[in-house]
Amino acid sequence: MDRTLAADLARLPELLDATRRAAAEALATLGERPVVPPQDAPPPAPLPAHGTGTEAALAEFRARWEPRLSASAGPRYLGFVTGGATPAALAGDWLTAAHDQNSNSAMDGAGQHLERETVTWLRELFGLSDAHTGTFVSGATMSNTAGLAIAREWLGERLGVSPAQDGVAALGPVPVLSGAPHSSIAKALSVLGLGRAALVPVPTLPGREAVDPAALDRALADAPGPAVVVANAGTVNTVDFDDLRAVAALRERHDFWLHTDAAFGAFAALTPEHAHLVAGLDASDSVCVDLHKWLNVPYDSAVQFTRRRDLQSRVFANAAAYLGPLGPDPDLVHLTPENSHRLRALAAWFTLRAYGREGHREIVERDIACARSLGERLDRDPAFRLLAPVRLNVVCFTLAGNPAPERLTALREAVAAEVFVTPTVLAGTAGLRAAFSNWRTTPADVDRAAEALRAAAKEIA
Predict the structure, then answer these.
(1) Per the record, where are the segments of Pro residues compositional bias (predicted)?
(2) For the chain, is the Cβ count within 10 Å smaller at the N or the C terminus?
């Protein structure tokens, strides 16, 4: 064994304790550090020929890189609909690395069993029936991609071909209909060979991002054959929801696969005031939910649900003698594009076990209240105007006068140390989005964010 590696092994408890102290110090300052520090990069360092061990690496990381990292796990990082990591989720993620499971095979099946239990809990959390099975993936983009890959195979089933076996060309043109799809939908269609041009925009309701069911009805009637509908349960700009029951009811007249992108909107199911927004979610053939958003597990975690696991395994089956047979309950290696599947479920298992439905409901309701509060503050401020009502946890706003992109960029950069928001365009108007999904966020953080935005708007006026 390499001498330095052997020395680290001998000191492993001490080194892990030093890492724990470094992590604890970083987390203790989340609320006061610059949310997004200046974006300079250190001079590049050469690859060392001979390492100096973990202690020296930790010291160099803390000196060169840690000061440049954002406080993205903190309470005023309001960009990208990003959560943090609850204490339990962090503990689960650390143990994920410590146990380093290859959770793909029944031959070493504990990780798979834990994931299935966690998926069952999540299914119950979001009000899905046991007709849905689920699998962990890396994020919403991969969840949407997997769901649409299953939809692609369903189209083949309807047409008497198998795209997984015969190639996507066997399908011919495929209409994918949606009102206000997330950008990852077009990306998924590109990856799947269906093509970005397959995405057919359907008119939305006036002043809304929710699809017009009557317009969708007409678009389905014009489709040359079976189609795919991508419904939205929480759009990124305004957190608008399609009427999922009305969309599903169109299957009485049309043949289509219903995929619902509920990346963070699914969490509306946790609060009685907003659960009606996801009524009908269970009718979906596939569902995307991103867990590193409102479940507040570390980044790189989502779940993909479907009613057609048989088609899912047809798409993603991996034939190799060392993997064993496919079987009636497929191993995880047969259910996603990834052959390598870390035990992502453990962080989710920990936070669900630690805080339960009620603990996570409280996070959701507090974030919604914070979003409403910021929206009310900005609506009263003559420097700003809201671009949409605050329906759930996103505040979409702009400058009241001359909302030019360069002025909004200046505003965003001016407040970056205190609050991080991201740019957008809604109905042709440039704006900013503040997305609340972090378990740490409190009304005091809303006060600080609102004051920072007010002061910065005054400076650039």
Answers:
(1) 35-47
(2) N
